[in-house]
Amino acid sequence: MRAGPGHRIGRIARVLPVYESHAPSALPPDRIARLRALLPAEGTPLLVGGAPDLAAAPGVRSCPPEHLGEVEPESLGGILLLDDAELPPLPALLASLRRVLGGAGRLAIELRRTSLRELTVALSEAGFVVLKTEPAVQARKEPFFVRPYREGDEAQILPLFRQSFFVERSPERFRWEYRENPAGNERISEAFAEDGRLVAHYAGYPVRFWSDVSGAPRTLPALQVGDTMTEPSVRHVGRGPTSLLGRTVRHYYARFCEGQVAFNYGVNTGNIQRFSMSFVGARRLEDLPYHRRDARQPVPALPAWRARLAGWRVERFTHFDTRWDDLWARTRGAYRLLAERDARHLEWRYARCPDVEYALWAVFRRSRLVGWSVLRHRGERRERLAWGDALFDPRYPEALPLLLSRVLAAPEHQHAELVETWLTPRPAWWAERVRALGFTPHPEPQELGFVFVPFTEDPEESFRAHLYYTMGDSDLF
Question: Within a domain: residue 463?
Answer without folding.
Answer: no
